[in-house]
Amino acid sequence: MADFEPCNFTLQFLRGRWFMMFASFLIMAGAGATYLFGVYSKTIKSTLGYDQSTLNLLGTCKDLGANVGVLSGLLAEVTPTWFVLLVGSVMNFAGYFLIWLAVTKKIATPKVWQMCIYICIGANSQNFANTGSLVTCVKNFPESRGMMLGLMKGFVGLSGAIFTQLYLAIYGNDSKSLILLISWLPALLSILFIFNIREMKCSRHPNEVKVFYENLIISISLALLLMGITIAQKCLHFSHNAYVACATIVCVVLFSPCLIAIREEYSCWKLKREILKSPCKVIVEEPPLPESKSAACQLVSEIVELPEHSSMEKTQEKKEVGCFSDIFKKPKRGEDYSILQALLSVDMLILFVATFCGLGCSLTAIDNLGQIGESLGYPQHTISTFVSLVSIWNYFGRVFSGFVSEKLLLKWKVPRTLMMTFALLLPAIGDLIIAFPFPCSVYVASLLIGFSFGIQLTLLFIIISELFGLKYYSTLFNCGQLASPIGSYVLNVKIVGKLYDNEALKQLARNGMTRSMVKELTCNGKQCFRSSFIILACVNLFGALVSLILVMRTKDYYKCDIYKRFRDEMEANEKEMKMVSAAEK
């Protein structure tokens, strides 16, 4: 039997929830390719001869695909997780690979509507990765969802900087090859871990919070490393071998959470073998165990899987709370809402307006970073630095909102909705800095906008899970971000793009030229984005005022113990798993 112990441990490790969490980190690190649009958008614009309004239309279609995840949410309600991840992989490769073929002239130049479809399909694939891995992790760690969401969305925020280092090491400074990289790498990651991501019925882990903070330290180290490398690459000349060395170091740090997963699974495996060799009786009415024994039993119970519910039981459960049942008879906040109960609630409407303003403005600013840098005279390499820094500060905003809001909520009962209001005020300052630039102002603006964008997105997902429950979370969190692409379309295409093109046409007229005389419509100077970003700042301020209404509506709810129901469920799982463990013996 001893000969088979390494095989047994390997099987448990690959099926355990700690390895699942590590695999989810990697999938999330590959699911943020949409944030690199500012790097390769200039290539699309120059290669295909687009003006700024057309390029912004592409950016809006990208945002539409990235944020309309209703399809992936509904698919997750009726299919297993592996199928959701598989569909996302196929969509990611198909969408971005077709864009790469277009910009490298390997196929006939597509029409604008075709390019819009390509980028929408590619960007929409990240919702399948989100739904497959992020939602599953939240359900497996319900009591630590703030920290889990902060870490998961943090790795998405770092993905732009990670991809930049990888493409510099693999392809060199070629933005066309970057499009190729983001077509195959995220798809490969999802396929590699397609059967490791699954929902489990687990008990509480005595070291759970410690493990989250260890992973937080690793992710912060990765973010600081990426920031240091990015700044060094701006100031110094790097050879290709230096780029390879940087990418190797980044990958080593990125994979280090696997060591934590191995340690935790090995502890569970060793304790299980020790206790099963000399088990004690497991009785529901038993007296309290000593602390060390209780922790051991919790570790053992975590690795025991219960039999799946029969399809009849699942159907019966669905009948009790259907997706569209009791639309106008809403439960209390925190309980499981049906899909229409949540979508038709006042709380969701307020979140929709706040998201329209906040995420819509932030996406507009991030998508236009390349053109902002170009209009102010920054070189292309520096523009890539802006995008990488936005990605890094985006990460800090995500982990900050996850861990700090969790601490504020548990210790002082500060509503997460209040932090959402704070996150809507920060980008207004960044917008004004872009509108009235000064030397190195784009660096400061990218810090504020990237940081606040990370806070807003993570808090949106956490607040939806806390107000409307986890039963239909895979659909509701995807519905909750629908306002983001709508805001991006209105603000990016109809306001920023139009005002930019108008200013560029004025410059052509002053030079005695017309639009037909130039292939690419370009604006230079501080005035190119001034009027549009003053408007964005005002929209952000309006969103902050709207979110204050949600703060007032939810302040009493956040004063309660919002996680008590999940603790009770996990305690019931512990008793049931102990009984199953004893029965196996």
UniProtKB/TrEMBL annotation:
Domain spans labelled NFD4 C-terminal: 343-558
Organism: Anisodus tanguticus
Protein's UniProt name: Nodulin-like domain-containing protein
A GO cellular component entry from the record: membrane
Principal subcellular localization: membrane
Pfam hit, one: NFD4_C
Domain Nodulin-like: 17-262
Coiled-coil segments on the chain, per record: none
Keyword set, alphabetical order: Membrane, Transmembrane, Transmembrane helix
PANTHER family in the cross-refs: PROTEIN NUCLEAR FUSION DEFECTIVE 4-LIKE (PTHR21576:SF110), UNCHARACTERIZED NODULIN-LIKE PROTEIN (PTHR21576)
Record family assignment: Belongs to the major facilitator superfamily. Phosphate:H(+) symporter (TC 2.A.1.9) family.
Chain segments annotated as transmembrane: 18-40, 82-103, 154-172, 178-195, 216-236, 242-262, 339-366, 417-436, 442-464, 533-552
InterPro entries: MFS_trans_sf, NFD4_C, Nodulin-like
Topology term for the membrane: Multi-pass membrane protein
Subcellular location: Membrane
Keyword Hydrolase: no
